[in-house]
Write a structure and sequence with these properties.
8 helices, mainly alpha
Length: about 190
């Protein structure tokens, strides 16, 4: 986040993208803090997972995106493929890796801390991790498409952010059922 803030001082448009991209995640983080009425999580713990989501996304995408482009080709090359090839690209090149990247901070927290101690915690921390991913992704989209598609902020910031939270929460619910039953089928089914 500090790197993005410093880079924003150099590039004005990137600064606008960063500020725009952080608005909805900040609102949702407050919502996640307030949703647990039985045993409220510490806001600091939710922020830790949010920043773990940013960090894991940043480093894993530095490795994964060039690898994906080598395997599937660049985004421009994908646009010329058949419908089936585009589906394979979206499933294996985008969807599955994104969900794995977003659930990694939850697995780290589950293994290393005692943050997650009730069922709703799985959803809260999975959503916080997804918000870190969405924040980073939205910066890129908002900055890249600011000239050609000015309404990208409204579309990306709310709809995609909410979907990232929902999809990662589904996987986290599968983790919860796995932790309760020790049956891996729940992780696979919810994934």
């Amino acid at each position: 986040f500090l790197v993005f803030t410093l880079f924003s001082l150099i590039d004005y448009h990137f600064g606008i993208a960063t500020i725009s991209a952080v608005f909805f995640p900040a609102c949702f983080l407050v919502f996640l803090y307030k949703i647990d009425v039985f045993e409220r999580e510490r806001f600091k713990d939710i922020l830790v997972v949010f920043f773990l989501g940013i960090i894991s996304t940043f480093f894993l995408c530095m490795i994964y995106v060039p690898l994906r482009d080598d395997i599937f080709g660049s985004m421009q090359a994908v646009k010329t493929l058949s419908l089936l090839a585009k589906f394979k690209y979206m499933l294996f090149g985008v969807a599955i890796p994104e969900e794995i990247i977003k659930i990694i901070p939850v697995l780290i927290v589950l293994k290393r801390t005692k943050f997650i101690n009730e069922p709703i915690d799985y959803v809260i921390y999975a959503s916080a991790s997804a918000l870190g991913f969405a924040f980073l992704e939205n910066i890129g989209y908002i900055d890249d498409y600011k000239e050609t598609f000015p309404n990208i902020l409204a579309l990306r910031s709310l709809t995609c952010t909410f979907r990232h939270m929902a999809y990662t929460s589904f996987i986290a619910l599968g983790l919860f059922f796995y932790m309760e039953t020790k049956k891996i089928k729940y992780v696979i089914l919810f994934f």
